[in-house]
Design a protein that fits this description.
Blueprint lengths: L3 E2 L5 H10 L1 H10 L9 E10 H12 L2 E4 L9 E10 H9 L3 E7 L2 E6 L3 E10 L9 E4 L2 E4 L5 E8 L1 E8 L6 E7 L4 E8 L10 E2 L2 E2 L25 E5 H6 L5 H5 L6 E4 L5 E5 L2 E4 L2 E2 L2 E2 L12 E8 L3 H4 L8 E7 L7 E9 L3 E11 L6 E13 L6 E14 L4 E14 L3 E5 L25 E15 L4 E24 L4 E29 L2 E30 L9 H6 L3 E3 L5 E15 L2 E14 L8 E17 L3 E12 L4 E2 L5 E2 L4 E14 L4 E18 L5 E18 L5 E16 L16 E10 L7 E10 L2 E2 L7 E2 L2 E11 L3 E8 L18 E9 L1
Length: about 850
């Protein structure tokens, strides 16, 4: 054997044998002096021989000598090679693989240095606003890979040690980060790429601007890592980029971009939305229960708005969802950058708003990150004697304890002082729509001191623990409290087109407290050739509440065509009598499981089931209520063209344990739990490198014990209801700089059976038949880079206030436009709302704002 064995007893004998071939080795060295011994071309054929035998055969063919330790490179390992006229370095790579770290030559001697133990590196790249950045080039120790569309990348079989990983892309700032790869382990790294002000609103992909309104990656919709095309449920996402471009400063305004969604501010002060023919509160925050019952919400701490369509009780529970869907607010999270952004917005009706977004790592290794969002909002109204003042502070903290454990904490405190909308109760046969009431739209029936003061506190704590490469544990705790100092509810009884009766009810010392603790286990595994993505979870929820209630009082009749004085708070308080209102506490214990099963590469099915045990405690003479409910979900997805087009279908069951309703006469109506079933099918596509995203679906929702509102605005539970319809959403980036988002929703929601035969076949209340939205913007790419324009429309069809289908809210079309200019450190946006000064009303009969303008100035450092 013509090779050197170092650090073994064979060393002297081997060296002697090599010396006998010195002449031949010298000849080999001379002939390869110009190109190097490793460039020698050799033909070799070996089958199932040891590495030592293979190297010996190479020595015989070339006269060269190998120096190595047979123990360190496993010289007895068997290999097979068949190469003709191949370079020696290629042959050695084929034989040795990654067993050798480095090959050094000295004349005709080839020193094989063994490889140390190997490790792996997994990572993900995000843009500075927290979204995955796809197709970025990643370099590590001379190796280079490209991140996938979700920003994920990996390096395998790396030598243990410390390295610098580098991420770069055209138009983005190159980022470098130190990583340490341990032997026989998989290390992780997260990289953040930063851009100028324009690119902050656009993720760069393939040299062009990505479809920046189409980011649907979310861990909340399925509570597992499913991409849009893999998910059998329909959902829309309103991105922060879109909200900024439209100069949105309210959640209600931003939600209009979600297909088929009609937002409304309720007379109680909370925010809700009508979708698929049903009303739902904004009751989810980072996937956990929140509330918008009596407290407002501020947009300053919202990263994105996710609107899930259809009954979603299987994963979210009855307290969070309605049969129309779920609205989930995703809050801003700390990022690995030191950055501050200040925004000042001013405009019509004395609008003045200041918001600050401050982010900074607290430790040099970026294991502890901190972010603070705060906003002060002051605004008067187009109405006389109306205003809205809010203050928000929202800190958040992220602590990566080690490579397995990450802790996240965020909180919000929102204080509100404002006036609420009226609740118009129509008792006149000749008033069929709001414009029949001859009230000057700028006149307020109540003085501004009949106001509302409340606050909301929201806390979210999360612990993520990586059990293994395939399984993760997530433990979450959330707490939400609403505290109302006082709330003057304004009831307007309409008796004729010119005459109304002013009334009011007062809520004081209101407390609503919601606590949830949730445990989820996510994992991936195979059973033979079948792949599984599994979720197993449990949730415990409590609700406690209390308040003082003043009965509804009737004050005076007003001829709205004549001069009148707004009703003062002191008049309302004069005869007010308060008493504690009995409110039963609630507890819900839930368990759920969901398995996304990939049967063959293109076909997947989702099997999900939730069991809820609900307990409403006894209060005074009202008996308690207990119920155990099952909510199944079945989904099917077939990828017609992998990663581009998929067909889907789902069957979902939803239920609602509805809180008692306070009727217009002050009495309380206890509602039995309501159940609904939905069947849906459709198609999703992401084409031309995601420049075109399309979702189309048809659904059918049936309820057997539906509630409805009668002509006197009393809630009744007495029949069957069917809601069916179709939805279409298109998000496109046809050319660089041009972004389009459009949607259309058709809904037919009817009372099929009721105790009042006269309403059978009628439309359900608050269910517009057609809802459409469209927004397009263009950002100039060359000479005036950073300058852009945008315009859009929103259409909402007429909707009825009650199942009698008499009084209705008329249809309306709104047109809005923006002009914006962004530089690296600053930007300015101008917005014109309701350009054509369209008169329109919300679902409670309140006239909405006429034409207005807003200007936003942002500064980043």
């Amino acid at each position: 054997m013509n090779f050197l064995l170092l650090s073994t007893p064979l060393f002297p004998r081997t060296w002697k044998k090599n010396s006998l071939l010195l002449a031949l080795s010298f000849s080999c060295l001379l002939t390869q002096a110009q190109q190097g011994i490793l460039q020698t071309k050799v033909s070799i054929q070996i089958k199932n021989q040891t590495i030592a035998q293979a190297l010996e055969k190479i020595e015989e063919k070339t006269g060269c000598s190998f120096i190595y330790s047979p123990n360190l490179i496993d010289a007895q390992k068997k290999v097979s090679v068949n190469l003709q006229n191949a370079r020696l370095e290629t042959i050695l790579q084929e034989i040795l693989g990654d067993a050798v770290k480095r090959v050094e030559t000295n004349g005709n001697r080839i020193n094989l240095q063994p490889s140390s133990e190997k490790g792996n590196l997994n990572g993900q790249v995000h843009s500075s606003d927290g979204h995955p950045a796809g197709y970025v080039s990643i370099s590590l120790a001379g190796r280079q890979v490209q991140a996938d569309e979700n920003g994920k990348f990996s390096f395998s079989n790396m030598e243990a040690g410390s390295y610098t990983v580098e991420a770069k892309y055209v138009g983005l700032l190159t980022q470098k980060q130190q990583v340490h790869i341990e032997a026989n382990k998989t290390s992780t790294v997260n990289l953040v790429l930063y851009e100028d002000a324009t690119a902050l609103q656009e993720v760069v992909v393939n040299g062009e601007r990505k479809n920046r309104f189409a980011n649907k990656e979310t861990p909340f919709v399925a509570r597992m890592p499913l991409r849009n095309l893999e998910n059998p449920q329909v959902y829309q996402v309103v991105t922060q980029q879109l909200m900024k471009e439209q100069v949105s400063y309210t959640i209600a305004e931003a939600m209009r971009n979600a297909g088929g969604t009609v937002p409304v501010i309720n007379p109680s002060g909370g925010l809700s939305a009508h979708l698929r023919g049903f009303s739902t509160g904004i009751n989810a925050r980072n996937g956990m229960e929140s509330t918008s019952d009596r407290s407002a919400m501020d947009l300053a701490n919202v990263e994105r708005i996710e609107v899930l369509k259809g009954p979603s009780g299987t994963l979210f529970g009855a307290s969070v969802s309605s049969f129309g869907g779920v609205v989930n607010l995703v809050t801003k999270k700390p990022i690995e950058a030191k950055r501050t952004e200040v925004n000042y917005t001013t405009g019509s009706y004395d609008l003045n708003r200041l918001s600050i977004d401050l982010n900074t790592p607290l430790k040099a290794d970026k294991s502890v990150l901190f972010r603070l969002n705060t906003a002060i909002h002051k605004e008067r109204s187009y109405l006389s004697d109306a205003f809205n003042n809010t203050f928000l502070i929202a800190p958040s903290l992220s602590y990566q304890v080690n490579e397995k454990l990450t802790l996240n904490l965020d909180a919000e405190y929102l204080k509100v002082h404002n006036t609420q909308p009226n609740n118009f109760v129509i008792r006149a046969k000749d008033v069929l729509q709001p414009k029949d009431l001859k009230l000057d739209y700028r006149k307020s029936l109540y003085y501004s001191d009949a106001d509302v003061q409340n606050s909301a506190s929201r806390i979210f704590a999360e612990a993520k623990y990586k059990i293994s490469d395939k399984f993760q544990s997530t433990t979450v705790f959330s707490y939400v409290s609403e505290n109302v100092d006082h709330s003057y509810q304004r009831v307007v009884l309409v008796s004729s087109p010119t005459e109304v009766t002013r009334a009011a009810s007062i809520y004081k010392d209101v407390y609503n407290g919601y606590a949830n603790i949730q445990q989820n286990i996510n994992g991936e595994f195979n059973t033979g050739s079948i792949k599984h993505k599994l979720l197993v979870g449990a949730n415990y929820r409590t609700l406690s509440s209390s308040f003082l209630f003043g009965d509804i009082q009737l004050f005076d009749k007003v001829d709205v065509t004549q001069k009148f004085t707004p009703l003062l708070r002191q008049e309302i308080d004069k005869n007010a009598e308060f008493a504690p209102y009995p409110t039963p506490s609630q507890q819900t214990l839930s368990a759920y499981v969901s398995d996304m099963i990939t049967i063959v590469p293109r076909l997947s099915t989702m099997l999900s089931l939730r069991v809820d045990h609900f307990n409403r405690n006894k209060v005074e003479d009202e008996e308690g209520f207990k119920q155990t409910s099952l909510a199944p979900k079945l989904g099917l997805v077939y990828q017609i063209l992998p990663e581009r087009i998929s067909a889907f279908a789902n069957y979902m069951s939803g239920f609602q344990n509805v809180a008692p309703v306070i009727q217009p006469d002050g009495n309380r109506f206890v509602i039995d739990p309501i159940f609904a079933n939905q069947a849906e099918g459709g198609i999703k596509s992401e084409l031309f490198h995601k420049k075109l995203s399309l979702t189309a679906s048809y659904y059918y929702i049936k309820i057997d014990n539906a509630t409805r509102v009668n002509a006197d605005m009393f809630t009744e539970q007495d029949g069957k209801q069917v809601s069916k319809g179709a939805e279409l959403e298109v998000i496109a980036n046809p050319i660089a700089g041009l972004n389009i988002i459009g949607s259309y929703a058709y809904n037919d929601n009817r009372i099929i059976k009721a105790s009042d035969v006269a309403v059978e076949g009628n439309k359900a209340e608050f269910a517009p038949e057609n809802v459409a939205s469209f927004w397009a913007s263009y950002t100039f790419q060359e000479k005036v880079k950073g300058l852009g324009v945008g315009a859009g429309v929103n259409y909402v069809d007429k909707m009825y206030r009650a199942s009698t289908n008499t009084f209705f809210i008329p249809s309306y079309t709104l047109a809005n436009a923006t002009v914006f200019y962004n530089k690296q450190a600053w930007g300015i946006q101008l917005k014109a709302n309701n350009i054509f000064n369209k008169q329109y009303w919300d679902s409670w009969g309140n006239l909405q704002a006429p034409s207005s303008v807003a200007a936003n100035l942002s500064y980043r450092f």
